[in-house]
Fold this protein.
Amino acid sequence: MPRKFVKTKARAARSIIRGRFAKGRLPEVEAFTASLPFDRRLYRHDIQGSTAHAKMLAKIGLLTRREADAIARGLARIGDDIGAGRFEFDIADEDIHLAIERRLIALIGDAGRKLHTARSRNDQVALDLRLYLRDEIGAVIELLSALRRSLVSIARRRVETVMPGYTHLQRAQPVSLAHHVLAYVEMLGRDRERFAQALARTAVMPLGAGALAATTLAIDRKFVARELGLRAVTANSMDSVSDRDFVLDFLSAAAILAVHLSRMSEEIILWTTSEFAFAALPDEFSTGSSMMPQKKNPDLLELIRGKTGRVIGDLVAMLTTLKGLPLAYNSDLQEDKERVFDALDTIKPALDLLAKFWRMLNFDEKRMKGAAGGYALATDLAEYLVARGMPFREAHEIVGALVREAIDAGKSLEQLTTEDLRRHSKSFGADAIEILTAEKSLARRTVEGGPAPATVRRRLREIGRG
Ligand code: ARG
């Protein structure tokens, strides 16, 4: 429990919502049910929402101007105090909403007692979380773009850097480092779209739903939405307080992103092994071994890969929490916040660190190129025959036999002569042997979406800065 909590015996007296209770709660019940230890992270957004709500109450005449001003000033001061670590949290307040409201009443008296007019913590927390996530999704999108820019800048300089592409983790066909890295740029582009869609569904204003059935008071919900820069108001009060789809949208996007970052990390881990040696781990990002002096370990990448489990877990936990809930609000929903915080605390630093990591990764282009030729050019030979009228299956068979023969003779494909080729098919001309370099193979893959330098440059122009 955070240091700033005060312990008190007179719990019933301290709470502002226990008028109907003769006795206080058991301390262990209080501790188990409170969200204050973690929902304090929402304090700025709680204050933002309350300030807009008070302004609306003044507009419709339920607060005087003076009262609304006193509320706004009191809330601002509370915000400063919490920000500066001066606020004394009391677990008896249950959550950040009551903590702030109780303090406001202590600071400004009766005007503070009017703030919760036409509002419930149920619509209040829905609003707070939406406001919080709106900001945080924006921050995630920024970080995603920064990582994309790191990758794009590598791609720009490595359009001609030939390397083997893999299927089944076996050398398959030549690609370029730029093309490989741009595959991640595409994934991250879709991730960014997913977060933008989550953002659009998050930025909707639920306040006014009250506990579940709105209010008899003539509130102005659209005014509050405008004040908060939210594009619309929610359409059903029961849905407003029980809907956490926007959390699921965010967590699904986060889980998919985490999977992408995990694959990316795994790839770099492979590239930096002595076996691949396509790249060297930068010291700034590597760890040593407590026993083996020679070791340089990619712990950071392993942990980005490992922490993917928790982000997927956050999504599954939230789905599971929601699946049995009848309408409308249920306290189970309080579990949403820690899932959101945990996912954010995992993906934000992972994005930031990977953006920095890629910029410092040193590639061994020679080594990559050396691995790109050889049998990885077999499909090129088969396609050579197809271009001369042979059915692909026949060409596949012929080149397969050629590869087998070359392997038995301990030769690579480039070492074969025109005579070697012609023994397998008279369709091979003198030019066949010339196509057998990784660069030529790459340059001829100009199909849209392909790895040819010209095609990749075109895609880079479309992508722009990232
Ligand atoms: N702490 C609660 C949450 O996080 C706020 C809403 C509580 N509402 C209630 N009726 N207990 O969801």
Summary: The longest strand covers residues 170-176. The pocket of arginine is lined by residues 35, 39, 95, 121-122, 125, 329, 331, 333-334 (CB under 6 Å). The domain at 5-117 is CATH 1.10.275.10 (Fumarase C; Chain B, domain 1). The mean pLDDT is 95.
